[in-house]
């Protein structure tokens, strides 16, 4: 059983071994998290090549060698060659985070299927048992939590910061946090106006 966490990987060195479609899909998620990415592959998809040309990542156009991951904080082996993926797993140090795309048992973390709506992140994992099922659930959640939900989460963040800065009474803080998180509040619309009205009634 895995232990779910949210990793802050901005500016962390991540090495992706492989330049195919699986690697490109994983790279997109890493870029969203602002990781510092190096791709090691003798060839790469057009999308990866464009990212390299734009300076979004470094592409080492070569076959894998253990030195490629020596300084990596996280390693992802995403080739279609089992021997190469095995070599990556064997070269990884115990302290490195490593994901082997075709071998969950050799990985110490899995990349979940993700729905992102601004600050809202919903992750779905089957522990490597069925990425297909994880994607199916992800699509269902994406329909349930649309872009409007993302805007509401951003609104909640701004309200929380305002309350923490301006409301010293802990009891009132909790009351406000609870009120703006209610589904009935969200459905009213005009959130800013409703929030100011709530402040006037509470303070």
Automatic annotation (TrEMBL):
<dbReference type="InterPro" id="IPR036291">
    <property type="entry name" value="NAD(P)-bd_dom_sf"/>
</dbReference>
<comment type="pathway">
    <text>Porphyrin-containing compound metabolism; siroheme biosynthesis; sirohydrochlorin from precorrin-2: step 1/1.</text>
</comment>
<dbReference type="GO" id="GO:0043115">
    <property type="term" value="F:precorrin-2 dehydrogenase activity"/>
</dbReference>
<feature type="domain" description="Siroheme synthase central">
    <location>
        <begin position="117"/>
        <end position="144"/>
    </location>
</feature>
<protein>
    <recommendedName>
        <fullName>precorrin-2 dehydrogenase</fullName>
        <ecNumber>1.3.1.76</ecNumber>
    </recommendedName>
</protein>
<dbReference type="Pfam" id="PF13241">
    <property type="entry name" value="NAD_binding_7"/>
</dbReference>
<keyword id="KW-0560">Oxidoreductase</keyword>
<dbReference type="GO" id="GO:0006779">
    <property type="term" value="P:porphyrin-containing compound biosynthetic process"/>
</dbReference>
<keyword id="KW-0627">Porphyrin biosynthesis</keyword>
<dbReference type="InterPro" id="IPR028161">
    <property type="entry name" value="Met8-like"/>
</dbReference>
<dbReference type="InterPro" id="IPR028281">
    <property type="entry name" value="Sirohaem_synthase_central"/>
</dbReference>
<dbReference type="InterPro" id="IPR042518">
    <property type="entry name" value="SirC_C"/>
</dbReference>
<keyword id="KW-0520">NAD</keyword>
<dbReference type="Pfam" id="PF22440">
    <property type="entry name" value="SirC_C"/>
</dbReference>
<dbReference type="InterPro" id="IPR006367">
    <property type="entry name" value="Sirohaem_synthase_N"/>
</dbReference>
<dbReference type="Pfam" id="PF14824">
    <property type="entry name" value="Sirohm_synth_M"/>
</dbReference>
